[in-house]
Specification:
The chain has 685 residues and is mainly beta. Helix content is 6%, strand content 57%.
């Protein structure tokens, strides 16, 4: 495999030049905003909540946000190409192929999940712009609406008001011709500030037809006024990615491209492009004890994709606009000896989706299909957090949400390539769903606390899940029932700061789970019979001398409880793409005040391939173990870093799909072997 020993060599040189010194101290209780949509202390939560701090991000050997998230309990990650998270998804509490539709991703409290099935553009937000990441496990639809079935991951960006006036330039070089250039500027006074980050990434990728290029610009401007803070956030990104496709294995004809040519491609002409921008205005106001917030947001995304399909090409041009308005208020009051913190809010969202299809980019002016969809949702919610006594907090909340979608498909049989096409009849759907939650946190003593929560959540089908094919291969809109779920969780946490332990058990039952089946003719999408998911999550942190150690373990079960598929009873069958065991071990050695060495080991057990709901295919995605290292050395205004990923050159893949027509065939997406990178960063003050 193509790789470079530069990172390892530089790491050895760094270690030889340093000696042991003092450790940085824990910075204190982290403030989180996800659970209530208002600032709140981490302690006292009724759900299994994790905060990844800025220091955790800087210590991590992982180069992308999905890889960092995958080190946490209860979170899985799938990647197709291993190139700057260009096609990565995260999966909270074992939803498999639908994981990214059931885990709500927020950026500063604003949703990033769209009404199509495209993956989150993780690379559009460089790690240097992130202050912390908040993970709330379990149904969270009361505060966040549709799609927060498994939980919420909220990415909080850095405020210019908390940074010194400076500019930071960074250059990074790595395996597979990877190079990254980044420049950040921060200018702030006592009451106002602005922070801007520009990033340019390019890589040849480790496979053929695997090149990737990403440009992004992110900004944050803030003004503190007499009653609060006004925040304007903006950004834009463009991405060009070549798509090498899968490697095929079919033992009965002696075909095994994973073994003979893992870096090759059978799709040398396929590619995808994406660009988009967003802007958001948030005003925070305090009137005595009452706290009011108003968020106004707009986002646009444009996507182009070309697939050759062995000489039967398809070209897609998709455009999506989203507007949202989210007013809310927190009203503290007392009833006798009980202190209340009542949150009241509304969410209004509008999406406009447009899709053009053709057989070539040159013919998109006369498209075969012109698909449009307009989706609107409106919701009201309330959540009261009650301090029953100094040790016990009780929370109770509810939400009601209205949803409607109108879709149309204009088909032109005379368009180039339209002879054998089809169009769908216009259709619409109106739905309403509700959510509730009940939680409690009881502190036994300053070191020990118990927490528990029960919740009902929901999600609606996306446009891509609605637009499918009939048994006669004709396009149609297939409107299906909303998905609902009930989940319970209970746990115990001990300690705080550098020595802490938290464990939780959960049970989740889903009704009408939305399933996109692109492999079985005429199904397109459907509502599954009930499924259940249950398991245990454990996270531990400890300081041992000059070393911080951490561990995260997940035991996950995801099973069908009824129903049939392809004539096979599903009761008791495992949900594909959900590993039973996942274990992450990490250590950070603070060699001295300016130098640290990080090491992570990550184990994932075997799992069923997609399209193997009946559990008939003997081959599974194999278990794998990855080890990563990172060394950081600060010298004055300079910071040097080196990382070595997949140290033992493990052959592995995180996604594979079983053939619907050949019982012995599957496609897999191999990921890079040993690779490394080095970076140089300078701070101008």
């Amino acid at each position: 495999m193509r790789q470079t020993p530069l990172a390892l060599a530089l790491g050895v040189a760094f270690i030889a030049s340093v000696h042991a010194d003092t450790l940085p101290e824990f910075a204190g209780e982290t403030i989180v905003v996800t659970p209530t949509r208002f600032p709140q202390a981490l302690s006292g939560q009724s759900a299994n909540t994790t905060v990844i701090t800025r220091q955790d991000i800087e210590n991590s050997p992982q180069a992308t946000l999905p890889e960092i998230l995958a080190q946490q309990a209860g979170i899985g990650m799938r990647d197709l190409y291993g190139n700057n998270a260009a096609a990565s998804t995260v999966d909270l509490r074992g939803f498999g192929a639908a994981g990214d539709q059931n885990t709500l991703i927020l950026l500063d409290g604003r949703r990033l999940n769209d009404i199509d099935l495209s993956a989150i553009d993780w690379a559009a937000l460089p790690l240097s712009t992130i202050e912390r990441i908040e993970i709330v496990r379990g149904g969270s639809s009361v505060l966040h609406g549709a799609g927060a079935v498994a939980g919420v991951i909220n990415i909080i960006t850095r405020s210019p008001l908390r940074q010194s006036n400076q500019a930071v330039g960074k250059l990074q070089w790595g395996s597979f011709g990877t190079r990254d250039a980044q420049l950040t500027g921060n200018l702030a006074g006592d009451a106002a500030g602005v922070r801007i980050t520009a990033d340019h990434f390019r890589s040849d990728g480790w496979r053929d037809n695997n090149e990737s290029m990403q440009r992004s610009l992110n900004g944050d401007a803030r003004w503190k006024h007499d009653r609060g803070e006004l925040v304007f956030k903006f950004g834009g990104a463009s991405q060009t990615t070549r798509l090498p496709g899968p490697r095929t294995v079919e033992p009965d004809i002696g075909l095994n491209e994973l073994a003979t040519d893992p870096e090759g491609t059978n799709m040398p002409l396929d590619w995808a492009k994406r660009k988009g921008y967003q802007a958001g205005l948030s005003n925070s106001l305090e009137f005595g004890r009452t706290h009011v917030m108003l968020d106004l947001d707009y986002r646009n995304k444009q996507q182009l994709a070309y697939f050759d399909f062995g000489g039967f090409p398809e070209y897609k041009d998709a455009d999506l606009d989203m507007w949202s308005v989210s007013p809310r208020a927190r009203l503290p009051f007392e009833t006798g000896a009980i202190a209340h913190s009542l949150v009241l809010g509304a969410d209004l969202q509008r999406w406009d989706y447009r899709l053009l299809t053709s057989n070539a980019p040159a013919n998109i002016g006369t498209p075969i299909n012109r698909v449009t969809a307009e989706q609107n949702s409106a919701a009201l919610y309330a959540r009261d957090e009650m301090q029953l006594n100094p040790a016990t907090t009780l929370s109770l909340g509810g939400r009601y949400e209205w949803f409607e979608i109108d879709a149309d498909d204009q088909f032109d049989a005379t368009a180039p390539g339209g002879l054998f096409g089809s169009g769908a009849l216009a259709g619409s759907q109106d739905e309403a769903e509700y959510a509730w939650e009940l939680g409690v946190n009881h502190r036994l003593n300053p070191q020990h606390a118990l927490f528990a929560r029960a919740a009902r959540s929901f999600r609606f089908a996306t446009v891509d899940e609605v637009y499918g094919f009939s048994p006669g291969f004709a396009h149609e809109f297939q409107f299906i029932r909303p998905q609902t779920s009930h989940d319970v969780q209970a746990g115990w946490e001990w300690g705080s700061g550098v020595s802490r332990l938290r464990t939780a058990a959960y049970y989740l039952r889903v009704k009408d789970e939305i399933h996109l089946d692109i492999y079985t003719t005429g199904i397109g999408n459907t509502n599954f019979a009930p499924l259940e998911r249950y398991g245990v999550e454990l996270e531990a942190h400890r300081r041992l001398g000059s070393v911080d150690v951490n561990a995260a373990y997940t035991l996950a079960f995801a099973e069908f409880t009824a129903g049939t598929l392809d004539g096979v009873a599903l009761d008791g069958k495992q949900v594909p793409l959900v590993p039973r065991h996942k274990l992450s071990l990490g250590a950070v050695w603070h060699i001295d005040g300016q130098t640290r060495l990080s090491a992570d080991a990550h184990y994932v057990s075997s799992q069923r391939m997609e399209n193997d709901e009946p559990n008939r295919f003997g081959q599974k995605i194999p278990a794998y173990t990855l080890v990563d290292l990172k060394l950081v050395r600060r010298i004055g205004s300079w910071q040097l870093a080196a990382a070595l990923n997949n140290v033992f050159d493990e052959d592995y893949y995180t996604y594979a799909v079983h053939s619907p027509t050949n019982a012995d065939r599957f496609n897999a997406y191999p990921l890079p072997g040993r690779s490394g990178w080095v970076s140089v960063e300078y701070t101008f003050k």
